[in-house]
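At this stage, I wrote out one protein, both as residues and as discrete backbone shape codes, and that material follows here.
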Amino acid sequence: MPFVYIVRCSDDTYYVGSTWDLDGRLWQHNHSDDGAIYTRKRRPVVLAWNAEFDSIEQAFAFEKRISGWRREKKEALMRGDFDALPELSRRKRARDRDRDRQEAADPEPRSPGSRPLT
């Protein structure tokens, strides 16, 4: 089965890839000249996340999709925090603007996770 994977590099960056042979590909990233140029310069790499797909086409499409994600969105995926993904898809400026509007409209300061008294 094909896989999409994320490795954490020695410089604490992430690399996203897809493969048929996850163990073999990780070995390449860490030992071979066949590994991606990006990871060859950042060894050792450690598997941070992976998912199995029904087809290599699906895996490749998902790899390309998440390759462009910001770090915080990739980390939410790795944690399994799927509820956070839509909000992390929005631009930071829009998220900050909406948060500021919400805070201005909320007359009673609350601690995170608390509910207003009714």
User: Anything to note?
Assistant: The chain has two domains: 1-68, 69-104. The radius of gyration is 19 Å. The first strand starts at residue 3 and ends at 8.
